[in-house]
Write a structure and sequence with these properties.
Family: Belongs to the flavin monoamine oxidase family.
InterPro entries: Amino_oxidase, FAD/NAD-bd_sf, Flavin_amine_oxidase, Flavin_MAO
Distance between the termini: 57 Å
Organism: Exophiala mesophila (Black yeast-like fungus)
Catalytic activity: a secondary aliphatic amine + O2 + H2O = a primary amine + an aldehyde + H2O2
GO molecular function: monoamine oxidase activity
Strand content: 15-25%
Length: 498
């Protein structure tokens, strides 16, 4: 399997090694033969948004060029197979409650690839809860009861578990009373309900929300959590299963390859990897020109830009974007999540999970699978409130892992999204007030340039793979209709000229 330059792994006998094998690395890295060609569409970015748009547009008959700065497809979602096991570096979990992603799973006949992450059949079947008051183990039933109680108090802004304020998560502003919570931070909401919370509940809420936001209590929007809560049907066990419960046995890169291969098989797709777009010029009436960092130039009738919010400022647009859009881009989003994989020499850890808050640099850990060697795979999450760059100090990282419970770590695997030049952060989470202020303008097009990304997807599962697919589908649909309309007008004009 080809090796991507992304990611790293550590073992005690080999130390840290940069780069990980990935099925999503495409060879050859470029298929463009004619650099003077004017494409129907150029798509910037080969994450799920770009792949969905490329698949749909090529299937509709349009000549499409896919440009990607990385050496692989997938963007912030990719997997690495190491010694026969799939380690998910970014987006991981899927569910039939996520309509856009499950449609694609069905489309590609992959329903038999679904696997549950939890497995409560092993001896160490408990949950570790570590706070400033000490550490204790509890059953998973006690865990769910505690966290359900805490999160319900947190989300219950209307006496109806949030259902009255946000009855439609895919149209979250349908009830305008939601705006009264738009500028509220997680810290603000915790302050509102502080007298209703036990210490355990306060720590439980803080850990859950910060794992979701990847930020701090002060810079994380409460409204973003309320949307997740509504999309999870206002129920903690349902939300937990939907966002952390079911993954693909084959790995996300194998899923992403289905999109790419279908587009490639149409013979209407061209692509260029390791190609960083630096400028998009739409000043010409009939054509958009794109320049890359290595001096290449591409042209198209339409452009779909899928560059994530936190790095969108690295692309220059001419004419300039609107002042409101530039302001939104400058604000960025707050998620600086650390996602760390640990292979543990203990098969009985397969039923374990835990939270450490507030003193540890990792917040949540959970057993997620069994490797072919019989070890337990655990995944850990941290946030920017007590940030850790896991590869900088392995001893410190191992200390953070062992703060949950004593573990014999054989391997660590990760990708640092905060230092990633094409992401500078993980999935989107807005600052208080930013979502209501900027979401609409982030979705606005710029002449023949459309902007599509899960970061501003118009749906309940924004920031998820589902939101990425939704955004790519909508952008492709718009472009298809416009180009077909232009083709019809050209055909009518030609007949009139005759």
């Amino acid at each position: 399997m080809a090796k991507s330059r992304d990611g790293w792994q550590w073992t005690s006998h080999e130390g840290i090694k940069a780069g990980l094998p990935c099925a999503g690395v495409i060879h050859p890295p470029q298929s463009v033969k004619n650099f003077d060609k004017v494409y129907d569409v150029v798509i910037i970015g080969a994450g799920y948004t770009g792949l969905t748009a490329a698949r749909d547009l090529t299937a509709a008959g349009f000549q499409t060029l896919l440009l990607e700065g990385r050496d692989r497809i997938g963007g912030r979602t990719w997997s690495s197979e190491i010694d026969g096991y799939q380690f998910e570096m970014g987006g991981t979990w899927v569910h039939w409650f996520q309509p856009h992603v499950y449609r694609e799973i069905s489309r590609y006949g992959m329903k038999n690839e679904l696997a549950f992450s939890p497995d409560y059949t092993h001896k160490k079947n408990y949950f570790s809860f570590v706070t400033e008051h000490g550490a204790r183990n509890m059953s998973h039933e006690e865990e769910i009861a505690l966290f359900s109680r805490a999160v319900e108090k947190f989300a219950n802004v209307d006496g109806n578990l949030g259902k009255s304020v946000m009855p439609l998560p895919f149209d979250q502003y349908s009830n305008e009373t939601v705006y009264s919570h738009a500028t509220m931070s997680v810290a603000d909401r915790l302050e509102q309900i502080k007298n209703d919370l036990t210490d355990d509940e306060r720590n439980a809420i803080s850990a859950v929300v910060l794992v979701c936001s990847g930020g701090t209590r002060e810079n994380s929007s409460f409204l973003d959590f309320l949307r997740w809560w509504a999309a999870g049907n206002y129920n903690y066990p349902t939300l937990l299963e939907t966002v952390l419960g079911i993954k693909l046995k084959c790995g996300q890169s194998a899923f992403a390859l289905r999109f790419f291969q279908e587009a490639w098989s149409s013979r209407r797709l061209s692509y260029s990897f390791n190609t960083v777009v630096t400028q998009v010029d739409s000043s010409s009436r009939d054509m958009v020109t794109l320049d890359s960092r290595d001096g290449l130039t591409f042209r198209a009738k339409r452009v779909i830009c899928t560059v994530p919010l936190n790095v969108l400022n690295k692309v220059r647009f001419h004419p300039s974007l609107s002042r409101a859009k530039l302001d939104a881009i400058r604000h960025k989003h707050v998620n600086q999540c650390t996602k760390l994989h640990a292979e543990i020499k203990d098969a009985e850890m397969r039923s374990w999970g835990g939270v450490t808050y507030p003193n540890n640099r990792l917040l949540l850990g959970a057993a997620d699978g069994t490797t072919p060697s019989g070890n337990t795979h655990c995944v850990f999450f941290g946030c920017s409130e007590n940030h850790i760059h896991a590869e900088d100090d392995i001893d410190e990282t191992l200390k953070a892992v062992n703060a949950f419970a004593e573990m014999d770590v054989e391997r660590l695997v990760s990708h640092n999204w905060s230092k990633d030049e094409f992401a500078e952060g993980a999935w989107v989470w807005y600052q208080p007030g930013a979502e209501a202020k900027y979401l609409g303008t982030l979705r606005e097009r710029h002449g023949p340039v459309l902007f599509a990304n899960s970061d501003w997807a118009d749906g309940g599962w924004r920031s998820f793979i589902d939101g990425a697919i939704q955004s790519g589908t909508e952008a492709a649909f718009t472009v298809k209709n416009e180009l077909r309309g232009a083709q019809r007008e050209s055909s009518i004009k030609s007949k009139d000229d005759e």
